[in-house]
Amino acid sequence: MSADPEPGGPGPAEPRKRPRLLRAHWLVWLFAAVGLTGILCIIALTVIIIGLDRPRETAKVADQKNETVFVVGGPEDLAGTNLMHLPVSASVGRGGGSMSSGSRDDQRNVLLIDKLSGASRRILPDNAHRIVSEHFLPAKAEVSDKPRDDGDAALMGKPAPSKTAPIAYYMLVLEQGKGSELQQILVGTLAGGRQGVVMEGLDGVDNVWMQGPTQIGLLVRERLGLYYRVVDIPSLKVVQSRRIVID
Q: What domains are defined for the chain?
């Protein structure tokens, strides 16, 4: 038989609870840290998304008579040229009459600025027409009937062609008249500034591409019809037009 503990002697040792409590506290802090990190990641991602959706920086400028204020959007370089372009949107008149909110939806002109000389010009002679869309195009066909493998060219010691061709032309889709739902197309050459209206009375422009070095291909809608058309830039004329059969 085991001897009984003597009276007044030490009793049986109590189980150690403190290490378990410490481990529990560490687990709580660990989960809290993980949760806080997740919240910070979500906040950072939200800020990035908001920054991507934020419109380009704009600045208000007055015309030469200091009568009307326009909103000038952020400049963007035109690839392969010394030019940058700035969208110009209508804003407010100094006399108090409101023209518009100055949003990109009410773009009225495009400024072209030479980065070397500072020379500038407007594409449109005035700000009367709303610009539905703008397109800056290279003198390079975007379609070809001959498949090409740039990887094979590199293996044969030939340099692969440049992915970015210099911008040579511009095309503006304009509101045909104030408040009109119809549209017209203006095409011009970037270097010389020669331009002209090549189509009118359109319901919309659905696609634009370079058909060849001097021709623009388009898919347009006119009087409820869908058309494939080709514009020759040197002559500023439509040289092909074919209605797309739906039924």
A: 56-127 (no CATH), 129-247 (2.40.128)
